[in-house]
Structure formats: structure tokens, C-alpha cells
Amino acid sequence: MGEQLYDIIIVGGGPAGLSAAYSAWQNGAKEILVLERDREAGGILQQCIHNGFGLHHFKEELTGPGYAQRCYDLVKDKPEIKILVDTMVLNIGQDKTVTAVSPEHGLMKVKGKTIILTMGCRERTRGAIRIPGYRPAGVFTAGAAQRMVNMEGYLPGKKIVILGSGDIGLIMARRMTLEGCKVQAVLEICPFSNGLTRNMVQCLYDYDIPLYLSHTITAIHGKDRVSGITAAKVDDHMKPIPGTEFDIDCDTLLLSVGLIPENELSRGLGIAMHPLTNGPIVDQHRETSIPGIFAAGNVVHVHDLVDFVSEEAEIAGKYAALKAQEQLPEDVADIAVEAIDEVRTCVPQHVRATAEGETIRLFMRVRKPMKKVRLTVKSGDDTLLTKVLPVAKPSEMIAVNVPAAKAKGHHADWTVSVKEEA
Amino acid sequence: MTKQADVVVIGGGITGTAILHELSKYNLRAVLVEQEPELAAGTTKGNSAILHAGFDAPTGSMKALMNVEGNAMYHELKDELDLEIRWSGSYVAALDDEQVDVLKELLARGQANGVPGLKIVSGDEMREEEPNVSKDIKAALFAPTAGICWPFGLALAFAENAVINGAEVIRDCKVTDIIVEDGAVKAVETDQGTIETKYVINAAGVHADDISRLAGDDSFTIKPRRGEYILFDKTAQKDLVYSPIFPTPTKMGKGILVCATTHGNVFVGPNAQDLPEDDKDDTAVTIPGMDEILDKARRLVPNIPVGATITEFSGVRAVSNTGDFIVGPSEKTTGLLHAAGIQSPGLTSAPAIAKKLVNLIVSETGASAKSDYKKGRPAQPCFRMMLDADQKALIAKDPRYGRVICRCETITEGEIVDAIHRPVGARTVDGVKRRTRAGMGRCQGGFCGPRVTQILARELNIPVTEVRKEMRNSYMFYNKESGGKA
């Protein structure tokens, strides 16, 4: 394969990549290439065989593979869209040359007028959170265990402890229970759960699986294979409290302790990154600091729902297509969007305002769980949007639209605030 | 199994494999037995990976002799066996005048030990080479002959060359007894059967005293002393160091250092914790231990990037009651030779220890050198280091080199298959990791672990449920109650 020029090269064929490809096609892009490293498109959804996906985006409840199939069906027979699987991107050059490799096509170099980064995220590991004890077999990230159980047909163990109440951990608590395993406990270092409320209910409470909040693991036992763990209560600084230790018998420890956007290629390119999202800084079109390189989905910030991933990818796909066709409107001002008060992160981090204005959709996460909060978006002293939300939790993204009519002309920097109502 | 050998080496760490390599140059039937499924599974995998210059040990000690000779030998062996070594030099840093005096003692001792090129440099001179070290460092002893290495790779290189030259490595093979008749070694009993032999070389690391006792020699004991480490991502190196940076040593040892690896990571450690003698394999890591090493490492390099931590691990040093290496024939049992108490600088000393012990056997038996001894070992393809044209050619020959299994380190299926089918090939997931780096990156095998497991099962023709992580009973996966789909 020679160095062919595409309108758009999409790195990653998960829900973000497929949704971006479809949106780019809808918006007139003619040569679209999707590069996927796994044996099939669909990304992590392929192993998420539980239901609960698609309620917002497809208006019906789907399984992970079901959602992936919907995304795939939209792009599969389009002559303008080529999907290469079993293909790993090794490098992206500043000139938008993508070097990739596959067993079928060997080493290839392709060039894009634009590129969309949709590499997703990876799981935080044991080492990153410093769990003391031995290093036996039987310690898995929840996602690795999920792949083994759901796609390959093996169990990671029979008697399970799960550290972290992230959604994958909660889903795996139920999955392992349904496979006939005994889930001894879910331990969470925070005083609140880090998963969706529905997953707490449907995956733990419905199966009487004990959840220990403000607890962590102080030792892993077993030299060859895990034989148990020691848990302890933690203080306000998340340090184990001496004297509160207790042992739990298990042969397996699953870790669900956070996700990290997979940005090695982005960093290699020198794209400006945000220290809290761990993803590229993007504007409302999801264009990064390098013109013509867009990013969407979990590579930008970790989402709670795949529906929002698709939505964000459609934005990136649309504007990458317009950019490739040189139809992206000129911007007249670059406005910073700053997360303040209890808002931890807000995407996009800046808005390139155009003369005619457009609706700006903001995705944000808060620092702590709260009831009855006021969300306010301001441009300088002008309030663009304010509303009261009954609850706000770190585990659930908040999405709001600033309508075009409101956004237009407000070129002073924006602030996005969430505060508890007095 | 009952088999005959001329020499049985017990223990497949750096010492045992270096001995096997040396034995394989002679017309001797040499067999190495290792209790774990992989070589280098003990102290060799958990140490500072430094090839020391040789100024630490007291002049005239076995440690000093073997260290200086071993260091020189590695300078030759690096090319011959394609060893992963970087001759980085090393620094011992002094923070006050008292410590500067210690540097002067070290310099004099090093010169007496025959270490070439030692010099004391000022703190500023050191900071020109290592800009991230503490402003408080007043002076440092620089040793140009020191280096850093990949210890597992060194042990494997020795073993691979030995096997190519007819030596045998038996893994998953635990020694249960040593048969001694009329004060002389007759056979080694293992859980895989009996090996009849006149010579046994005891390179059993922390268990060397147990092995010695099996052969009727209780002349020494080994105390296990654990050291913990923290390893950082490659992205951290630019803010840290390129050479090993030691504190000024104390009576307790060489202290906690900050050091790069040959693969571009950085680590800090080790501390020193004496373990109970009935728990010699306690490679746990502890919170106080990790806090201690970070605290001490910051005195040398203030900005340790805790957020870039990839993993923590520990190793156990084999400390003999004599304080020195025990290298030579047993005084109690004929045919038993010891390479015991091999703590630091054991990695550096291994080839010298091997030569010393094998020379003894050769002179006693009159064994002749092999006329067809083959140097080197099969080249190990490394996809990520190749030029585009070479990558293309390799994939054209074997498309499996076009399938990336480990994303963090860009390791292809072709390299993993090669690692499994090489001499003394990988049998476990960690065995693949240490031969190829698959699983050694920032995701620590989260993505590639299940895939490597399946490649191992396929290539070794065993069920997935029999694939192990590393140690004897470290099975990874179970069948589903329903039998699973596989």
C-alpha cells in the first residue's frame, strides 16, 4: 500500500472511531480510513456483554456488542469508508502521515488531510496505586478479566475480591457471580462509590455483595497464586488506619481503580494535554492544539456512557470532514472555558467562536457527590446559562448545551461553575 | 527419569547459568536444574541490575577479586553473547565533608582492588553529567567501568549459549536430596527423577545452605535480606538520571540508589530488611518500605516522579554468615562445589565465579575443551528497533511480525513466538515478558496478558488453564463451570 491521501484517518475503531467515521461520511468526507488494532471493530464494547448501552443514542437498551454492531452497520457498506482491522498505528507525524502495521498489509504509511484520535483509554494497574504484598498470579485488572470471561471463555478465579467501585468492577462483580464464583467483597477507598447508581443497585445490592466504602487493601497474600488479602479502613487522607485490618479469603483480586486516556500517540505528536483529563485540550469541534488533528471519546476524557462517546465523536467527525473540505468557518475569537468551584473538568477547554455562532455542548465532571446544586455558565459577568440539578456525582458526567443565540458574541472567557445551593 | 551427568548445577540464576555456560566449553555432560518454570526467577530478577566497578568490597576478599575480574569479563562478553549492557559509569555521592572522607577511602580501596579509572569529581562536575541530582551533593566518586544491565537477559544469554553447545537445562525440577557415598557425591534426586553425577555445583541462591546440608555440609548458613524497589515509566527518565547514583555507603550496605535501566526506565531502591530464615522467598513489598526508599532517594534526586510509578517489586539477597562469597570445593563432601552467599556484587562476579569453579573441575577431571564450541546465540529479532525496510522484510517472511500484541512496548506476535521457541524458551507469561518486554510497559500486561497467555497455550500445545504467570503454581485461568467455549 503506497502513501495514499485520505480526507480523514481515524485511529481506533471502537464506538468513537465508528461514530466519527459515520458522521464524517454524512458531512461529505469521501475518503475515510479507520485503523483498528483488534481482530474486529467495536473496541471495548465487544467484551461488555451486559445491557444498558444506547438508551440515549439509539433510544433503546442494547448490549455492548449490540451497540458496536449498530455503529458498525452504519459504516460497513459505505464505499467511502475503509476499515482495516488487526492494524496497529505505530506513529503519527506532524505532517499527518500515519505509520501502521498489520500482518496482512505489512508496514504502511498513509496520509490524512485530517486525523481523528479515538484510541480510548486503559485501566490503571496495581503498580500505579502501590498495593503492598506479593506479586502472585490472580491479580487482574477488571477489564482484562472481563475479556477472558466474556470473549475467551475462561475464569480468572473462583473466589473474588474487587478493589475499586468503578463501573467495570461493579459489572464484573455481577458477571463473576453469574458464572458461579463467589464475590467476597468490593472495596472502595473513597467514602462514596465511583460507579453509576444503576450499577450499584443492579450489580451489588441485587446480589448481596458487600461494599466497603473508605477501605483499601494493605496486603496481598500468596506467593504463586493469590490466597487472600488484608483490608483496612482509611482515614480522611486515604491512609490505612492501624488496627482496622481484617483478612478476606480469595484466590483472585480484580482491580477497578480508574481509567487513563491512551495518549501515547498524542504525546508523541506534541499535542497540548490537560493535566486533569489526561487527554488533549480540544475546542468545541474537538480539534486539538495541532490544526487538523481532532480527538473524541475516552481519549479526550473518560466518559460514563458510550452514548456520550458517540455524541462527541459525531462532533469530531463532522468538523474534521468540514476541515478536510476546507469548509470549517473562520473563527473570530478564541475563548477559554474554565472549570471552577466544584467542577473538576470541563470539555471543551476552549471555544473558537465564529461570526454566526453555534450551540456549544459542555461535558463536565464534579469533584464530590452533592445534592441540589446550581450549574452556571458565564462569559465574563454575563450569565449564559444557569440551572439547578437535583444531584451531581463524580461518577456521572453532566452535559449541557449553551444555545447558539446565547453563545453568540460572548467573547469574554467563560467559567463553568457547580455549587451546592444554600 | 534417571540420567547420567558429569556435573549438575543446582540453581538457574545468573551464577548457575554463567557456570553452565563455562562448563559447555568443555567435553563434560553438564545439566542445570531449576525448581521454577523459568530461569532467573529468584534473586537475579530482583536486584539493582548494576555491573559494579569493584571498589566496595574489602581488598583481598573473594567479593573484590570476583567483582573486578567479572566486570572485565563482561566487557568482553557483551559483544560475544549480545548482552544488554550499557557502560554508564556510576557515581557515589557525598553530601557532607565526613562523606567526602569516605569517598577518599573508597578511592584508595578501589585502586588497591585494581579498579581502573576511578576519580573523585566535584558536585558541579557531577551535575554537568547528571543535571537532576541534588544541589547538596558536594563531591562524588566516579567509576567509569561500572555499567547497568538486564540481568534476566544475561542469565538467558548464558543458558542459551550453553544449550546450543550441548548442555541441558531442566526446569520445574526441584532437588529433593543429594546422594553422598563414602563422603563423595553420587547423585542428585529431584522431583523429576535421579541424575547420577560426580560433581554438584551449588548455585542455589538463598537456598544454598539447604542444598549444602542435603549433601552433608553444614559449614555455612544463608540469611535472606530483602530489598524493595519502585520502577518508573520511561517518560520519567529525562527528569532523573542516566547512571547509577549511590549514596555514600554505611556499615549497612551500599544504600538506596537512583538508577536507570537499559530499557530507559528509572528505579529507586533497595532498602535492606532481614527476613526470618524460614521464609527465604518473601518478596512482598511494604508501605513503610516504599516510603523509606522514596524518602532516601530524594536526598540524591529531589524530584522523584511518584506519579509515574509503574510497579514495585522486591528481591532477596543471599547473605552468608561469613560475610563473603563462598566459592570453591566443600571441605566436607567430595565433588560438591559452592557458589554460595552470592549477594551483591554477585551479578558482576558471575562469569569470574564460573571460571574459577569450572577450572577446578577441568583440572581434576582433565576434561578437554570442545573443538566445535560455538560462540554466541541466535539473534533475537526486535521489531521496534528495526529500520522500516527491515520491518517490511521481516513481516514479508513471517506476517506474525506485523501483529502488535503489546501496545505499550510495541512487541509483535512474531517476537513472542520466537521467545517461546528459542533455546530454553519462555514457558510462562513473565518468561515472555522478560525475553521480549511484552507486558513490561505502563499497562503492565493489562491488555496483552490474556493474549500472551493464549499464544503460550497454542505454541506449547497446552490448555490455557495450564499457562502460568511465572512460578511453579502460578496458574492464571480456570475453566468455566460450564466448560467454557474453548
Report on the structure:
Chain A is of the alpha/beta class and 422 residues long. Chain A is built from nine helices and 28 strands. Chain A has three domains: 1-122 and 259-328, FAD/NAD(P)-binding domain (3-Layer(bba) Sandwich); 125-257, 3-Layer(bba) Sandwich (FAD/NAD(P)-binding domain), CATH 3.50.50; 331-422, Immunoglobulin-like. In chain A, strands 1, 2, 5, 6, 7, 8 and 20 form a seven-stranded mixed β-sheet that branches. A five-stranded parallel β-sheet of chain A has the order 10-18-12-13-14. A five-stranded mixed β-sheet of chain A has the order 23-21-28-25-26, with no helix packed on it. A six-stranded mixed β-sheet of chain B has the order 10-3-2-14-22-21, with helices on both faces. Chain B has twelve helices and 25 strands. Chain B is of the alpha/beta class and 486 residues long. Among the domains of chain B are: 86-145 and 224-310, D-Amino Acid Oxidase, subunit A, domain 2 (D-Amino Acid Oxidase, Chain A, domain 2); 383-466, Orthogonal Bundle (Arc Repressor Mutant, subunit A). The chains are: A alpha/beta (422), B alpha/beta (486). The interface between A and B is large, with 50 and 59 residues.
